[in-house]
Amino acid sequence: MTDTLVHNAPQIGTRTVHCRHFTKRDGRDLYLYGYAPHTLKPLAEDDHDVAKGGELRYHPLRGEWNIYAAHRQNRTFKPSAADNPLAPSVAGGPPTEIPFADFELAVFENKFTSLHAQAPKPDAIEGVKLMRAGGRCEVIVYSPMPSGNLYTLGQDKRRLLLSAWNDRYTSLFDQGCEFVLPFENRGDEVGVTLHHPHGQIYGFPFVPRVQADAAKAFDAGYDLAGHLKSLGGEYTVAKAGGMTAFCPPYARFPYETWITSDIAARGPWDFSETQLDGFAHLLGDMTRRYDAFFERPTAYMLSLHAAPREASDKFHFTAQFYPLLRAPGRVKYLASVEQSTGAFTVDVMPETAAKTLKAL
């Protein structure tokens, strides 16, 4: 077991962000980020058999790699509040994933990981292209509180989240990951099994097809900043600190919204303090707007599309919200056409969505 304090995480304005690295009893890494050094003593931990990832198989007709991880069938599914694995541990109580009585923000290796640096070499299958499922899967816990969202967390905690994301980008790229995807799933409709406010971070050993295609489009000359400017504000929802939240005219989901910098940047690690403030604000503001419009905690998928490790400086970062609702009380189902062809049927015009969300 190792227990060290690391003080090299990015600063937020004049506030230093501290990162404590702790090695869990089963060998997994735990990082505790905060504005104050984390010095609490660890509590009891469980012994776990940690899976070392699955395998990758290439789909010859779609031109993409997919992850196969059968051990994830047994992952935690909607535990009771008393068995919340993302809560701080309590002395004498059942151990959780975070063996401390308190924390500000935590990142740990996923126990039910799909990708792992020590993933085994898959057995050969005639006519199938295979690859080790190297890489890494992490869980990022926004708060010790069992409820809340990106809006109610507040600006200080959102800035801390951005600092942790950027630190994990650096670490995972340094470990050889080709693409890093921080994301959040929210709501039962998305399949969330733990409602404690959290997200995940996947470090891929390859560049997924969607991001590879985006990199090709940017290299071929697509200018997202110029396109957004030429739209003249019709698709804009909100602006803050050199960042814009907008409904892209080619959105695939009703009320889909992106957040991006007004000037191209490869990822949030390239943002200025003003841009980081604006990005953090808009993450909370969009969550507020969605919940106000849909009149409930909105089910959505949020993903950060930063540049792959080897992408050029032409790549332009976006954070993309995909709501799983098309109106208050109405779910947007991804049915046969969408799943079979990739051609989405969009029930709300993006310009109408932008106008509606902007008015909130």
> Whole-Å distance between the termini?
50 Å
Low-confidence stretches: 1-8
- Which CATH top level class of the largest domain fits? Alpha Beta
* Number of E-type strands: 19
Element pattern in H and E: EEEEEEEEEEHEEHHEEEHEEEEHH
User: Please, how many domains?
Assistant: 2
Which architecture of the largest domain per CATH?
Answer: 2-Layer Sandwich
- Alpha-carbon Rg, integer: 20 Å
Mean pLDDT: 93
Question: What would your notes on this structure say?
Answer:
The chain contains six helices and 19 strands. It has 360 residues and is of the alpha+beta class. The chain has two domains: 3-206, HIT family, subunit A; 225-358, HIT-like (HIT family, subunit A, 2-Layer Sandwich).
Brief summary:
With 360 residues, this protein is of the alpha+beta class. It has two domains: 3-206, HIT-like (HIT family, subunit A); 225-358, HIT family, subunit A (2-Layer Sandwich), CATH 3.30.428.10.
Detail the topology: elements first, then pairings:
Layout (H helix, E strand, L loop, with lengths): L2 E4 L4 E2 L2 E2 L1 E6 L5 E6 L20 E5 L4 E5 L36 E5 L20 E3 L3 E6 L13 H20 L4 E8 L11 E7 L4 H11 L4 H7 L5 E5 L2 E4 L10 E5 L11 H22 L5 E6 L12 E6 L1 E3 L2 E2 L4 H6 L8 H9 L2
Antiparallel strand pairs: 1-4, 2-3, 4-5, 5-8, 6-7, 6-9, 8-10, 10-12, 11-12, 11-16, 13-14, 14-15, 15-17, 16-17, 18-19
Helix pairs in contact: 1-4
